[in-house]
Design goal:
heterodimer, A: mainly alpha, MetI-like fold, 2 strands, 75% helix, globular, B: alpha/beta, D-Maltodextrin-Binding Protein, domain 2, five-stranded mixed sheet, three-stranded parallel sheet, 14 strands, elongated
Chain lengths: 290, 275
């Protein structure tokens, strides 16, 4: 039946939900007795915030979330820019532009992200850093600049890993975003473009004022799910020791052996991050829809 | 035209032939200028790579790194008059990351093995570690010899790429080996009974046996291997090796290294800094 108006809560729903809750409880009990695990939930809260010398400090989980957010935000920004450019190139009718964009997209869509991360960590990240002397440039700058780069990117010791991670995520996500942008552009009716040209707009203006605004509305939902994907994919960056949520969790597990508690907390934290982002974008969708 | 090119070739060959002794003389000078130690002094920062191993190096509650290695690296840096930067790395990628220059030295409880030594240079040992075993009370009851575990139906857990893996392969060739990325996963495997025992460097097996005394026990009290632990540096850097070797000799003779080792490996006073 198609949804009309308010959703009703019936007796069937009540029984179904009770059954579901019961099954969950049974499952958890089974896991508990099978693992014979020594739960120590008391050790988790200080990993979020803890008191020391009378002031409140952020624990490793908060630092991890902060890095996951930084990593995702930079990757989303760069990937959106790169993806849009590639998407426009892909919908061009010039063979050269089309081929360039297609090569990039197909190359990066068909390589597992973890491989991209290792390539950018071992081969590209350091070379780029050494050629541009970024390390010594930042070191030679004043305390303020250093603190600033530390907050918006990462502290110097892990700066090159951080950028390697952002680079890998950017090219990976950009490949998908370009496909989304391309399909959005293709969905703008041909006669719109022709009318715009007839009104005397130049090519740039047609793209900027006619195609992209219309495409934008169409691509917002798939783009949003790509952003959510970026947050999830950022977990892979843990393999190159960027201190994001997963890596912090793994380190903590090595030190404290609280395997189960930490994985459960990480699961919940990722869910909160991605779910919040989906909700925010869903509210934009209603705002920008006709 | 050709004559001119020929003349140019001859002159440039001559220049290079006569200039090469001059170049050769500066090679040793160049080497010492390009050594890691020189770069560390200029930068004012020693970058140290390591991976989390309890109690060699681990994260304290406040997010700082603590452990035996951390103490060693801090003292090394302060004796050299530079700051120290810690770069945590995954164990599986610790040598490639040293070779690509992510850090200057690995101070990470790394045992000196011939295989590793082909890729990096090691200092003289600054400590010795040994492999020990912790077994499940339920699945592997009443064993008291290492050969008891060397049977086809035994499943042994260890951390991937460590000397625990090497020791298990060597001493327990018949047992089935299960490898994990971290020790916590390996312990979990023994706790739930999917593996009979776990091999790891002492004192971790003992700590785990104390923590889960109702399910785990240490079948053999002594370690069954003895392994030298050294700093790892990039190959062909004699200056850096010399500085580090002599630093180790000094601190060994003064007893500082042994004293720190005792604190981290024989007491558990540091536990409250983690919990």
């Amino acid at each position: 039946m198609i949804k009309t108006g308010k959703i009703k809560f019936t007796l069937f729903d009540f029984f179904f939900l009770s059954l579901l809750l019961f099954l969950c409880a049974a499952f958890l009990w089974k896991v508990h007795s099978y693992l014979m695990y020594d739960w120590q939930w008391g050790e988790i809260p200080p990993r979020f915030f803890y008191f020391e010398k009378g002031s409140l400090h952020a624990g490793v989980f908060m630092q991890g979330i902060f890095y996951t957010i930084k990593l995702s935000v930079w990757s989303i920004i760069f990937a959106t820019i790169l993806g849009t450019v590639l998407g426009v190139l892909r919908s061009s009718n010039k063979l050269f532009r089309n081929l360039i964009a297609m090569t990039f997209v197909e190359l990066h869509r068909n390589i597992p992200p973890i491989v991209l991360i290792f390539i950018s960590y071992f081969f590209i990240g350091d070379q780029l850093f050494n050629i541009l002397h970024i390390d010594s440039i930042i070191r030679s700058m004043g305390e303020n600049v250093r603190n600033f780069t530390e907050v918006i990117f990462a502290p110097l010791p892990i700066m090159s890993s951080f950028f390697a991670g952002v680079l890998a995520l950017t090219v990976y996500e950009a490949a998908y975003i370009s496909e989304i942008v391309k399909s959005g552009i293709m969905s703008v009716p041909r006669n719109q473009v022709e009318s715009a040209y007839a009104l005397g707009m130049n090519k740039y203006k047609v793209i900027r004022y006619v195609i992209l605004p219309q495409a934008f509305r169409k691509i917002l939902p798939p783009l949003a799910s790509q952003f959510v994907s970026t947050i999830k994919d950022s977990a892979i960056v843990s393999v190159i020791a960027v201190p994001e949520l997963t890596f912090q969790g793994l380190e903590l597990m090595s030190a404290t052996f609280l395997t189960m508690e930490i994985w459960i907390v990480i699961t919940i934290l990722y869910f909160i991050l991605t779910f919040t982002l989906s909700k925010i974008i869903a509210s934009w969708e209603t705002k920008y829809s006709y | 035209m050709f004559g001119r090119i020929f003349k140019l070739l001859v002159i440039s060959t001559l220049i290079f032939t006569f200039a090469s002794p001059v170049l050769a003389e500066s090679v040793s000078e160049k080497l010492s200028n390009e050594s890691t130690i020189e770069k560390v002094i200029q930068r004012g920062v020693l970058k140290v790579g390591f991976s989390t191993f309890v109690p060699w190096a681990m994260k304290a509650k406040n997010g700082e790194f603590i452990g035996f290695e951390i103490d060693v690296a801090k003292k090394l840096a302060s004796d050299m008059g530079v700051k120290v930067e810690f770069i945590p790395t995954k164990w599986s990628g610790i040598i490639p990351a040293l070779l690509t220059g992510k850090y200057d030295v690995i101070i990470g409880g790394m045992s000196i093995t011939p295989k590793r030594n082909l890729k990096v240079n090691f200092t003289i040992p600054y400590e010795y570690s040994g492999m020990s075993i912790v077994a499940s009370k339920i699945k592997a009851k009443g064993m008291d010899e290492i050969s008891d575990f060397n049977k086809e139906d035994m499943v042994i857990a260890a951390r991937l790429g460590t000397t625990a893996e090497v020791a298990a392969r060597k001493h327990l060739p018949k047992a089935k080996l299960k490898l994990f990325d971290s020790e916590s996963q390996a312990v979990q495997e023994v706790l739930v009974g999917r593996a009979h025992a776990m091999v790891a460097s002492a004192p971790l097996p003992h700590f785990q046996a104390i923590k889960y005394s109702d399910r785990l026990y240490v079948p053999i009290d002594e370690n069954f291997t003895k392994e030298p632990i050294g700093f790892a540096v990039r190959k062909g850097d004699i200056d850096t090796l010399n500085v580090f070797n002599n630093w180790i000799r000094l601190n060994w003779d003064s007893g500082w290294l042994q004293e720190r080792y005792e604190y981290w490996f024989e007491t558990r006073k540091w536990e409250e800094r983690i919990k």
